[in-house]
Automatic annotation (TrEMBL):
PROSITE patterns: OMPR_PHOB (PS51755), RESPONSE_REGULATORY (PS50110). InterPro entries: CheY-like_superfamily, OmpR/PhoB-type_DNA-bd, Sig_transdc_resp-reg_C-effctor, Sig_transdc_resp-reg_receiver, WalR-like, WH-like_DNA-bd_sf. Keywords: DNA-binding, Phosphoprotein, Transcription, Transcription regulation, Two-component regulatory system. GO terms for molecular function: phosphorelay response regulator activity; transcription cis-regulatory region binding. It comes from Fusobacterium necrophorum. This is Response regulator transcription factor. PANTHER family: REGULATOR OF RPOS, TWO-COMPONENT RESPONSE REGULATOR ORR33. The modification 4-aspartylphosphate is found at residue 51. Residues 126-223 bind DNA. Residues 126-223 form the OmpR/PhoB-type domain. Pfam families: Response_reg, Trans_reg_C.
Amino acid sequence: MNILLIQRKQEFAKELKIAWKEQGNIVDIAGNYESALQFFYAGNYDIVLLDTWIKGGDAFLLAEKIRERSRKIGLIFLSEDTGFFWKKRAFEVGADAYLLPNSVEEVSLQVFALGRRVKAEAEYRKHRYVYADMEVDLLQRKVFREGKDLNFTEKEFLLLSLLLKNQGLALHRDMIRKEVWGADFQGASNIVESYIKQIRKKLQDKEYHWIKTIRGYGYGIDERKGE
């Protein structure tokens, strides 16, 4: 795993780093707000451990920045502050756990348990697109909403998958037609519009407006509505 330690207690952080590196993990240590941001934006971390106090900045604001960038990273507060206020604040900004730095062994148990969960979720997501209450299973080639199979045809599945793969981007209808039906397609010129209509009907998208029409251009998925 790739782990980022953002700690005021540098000695304990170094003990954790030594123990975890011996198990084959990559561990970086940041001692202040600026270096924490630099490490985080430059790295690809599975787990971030964060103190409630950081030199040069607000730890909870940093946690919010981490969560804005990724909801998939395991985020743990590791702090000597035992008051309810600190724990409540930590979970409000997206922490998965709040631990006391009692011992390397105890912290390691919790960190690696969360790490296994993060890895399992990443493996699960590798073959799926999850958007709001919709799930596209790339292996079964099926689309579900709230666990119900929507019985998409192959072309409907390919079109929706293409839009989800490119969330936040506007895709030209000609590009969609080429990707879904092939460069040699000689059928109806409005084939994309027709299939978008069918997909919207099956998704009941009239209520949610997930698929956006870009007038005179094509279509896209509003990534903000998928959170």
